[in-house]
Specification:
Elements lengths: L26 E3 L2 E3 L1 E4 L3 H5 L5 E4 L7 H10 L4 E4 L7 H13 L4 E4 L5 H10 L4 E5 L6 H7 L3 E4 L5 H11 L5 E4 L4 H10 L3 E4 L4 H14 L4
Parallel strand pairs: 3-4, 3-10, 4-5, 5-6, 6-7, 7-8, 8-9, 9-10
Antiparallel strand pairs: 1-2
Helix pairs in contact: 3-4, 4-5, 6-7
Length: 221
Amino acid sequence: MNIPEFKGQLRHNVIEVPRCIQSASGIRIFGRLIKSLIFTTDVAIIRNNNADAVIAVYPFTPQPSITHAIMTAAEAPVLCGVGGGTTTGRRVVNLAMDAEFRGAFGVVVNAPTVNETVARLRERLDIPIVVTVAGAGDDIQARLDAGADILNISAAAHTPDIVAEIRGRFPDIPLIATGGPTDESIERTIAAGANAVTYTPPTSADLFRGMMAKYRERDYL
């Protein structure tokens, strides 16, 4: 079936996630079907993409001001990182509650997060808790028993294998996974059992580099 499309003149230049992600089953959160998640905290990119959701995890101590900026910029549901590695314990719970109050569709905790913290989050939150899995040695059953709702598999080249192993043992648990840089790697991750796929977009610097090259070709400078 042909899908009519309108882009406009001012908003046609958006980041589009690979179309092959649409073959994933998706995860329905509060009535919204999510198949693709864009992995970024760049508010300009968050405002200009066609992903179903945003997964906003970053390598700094989570701060409410960052969560607020992301939530203000986003038009799609946001899964917010709330720490769990360097940031632990009560602070993680407080950050997660703040994210929920600001409208987050879920919170994401890092792989080092202890199960006691996951359990405390489960007691306080009414949004999904997404626990990151970074390797094959993680005790998945303990994560689920603690209160994890969704697993986020982020294991680089080993991701499809770990997805397949978890899916074999837990056929019904929702799985988000990194898809890799190509359609083939994304399709392999989906075939392994991922319900939704995270996509890492080019940086603003990369996008600007390409744009400026086109401007120079047109003698605009």
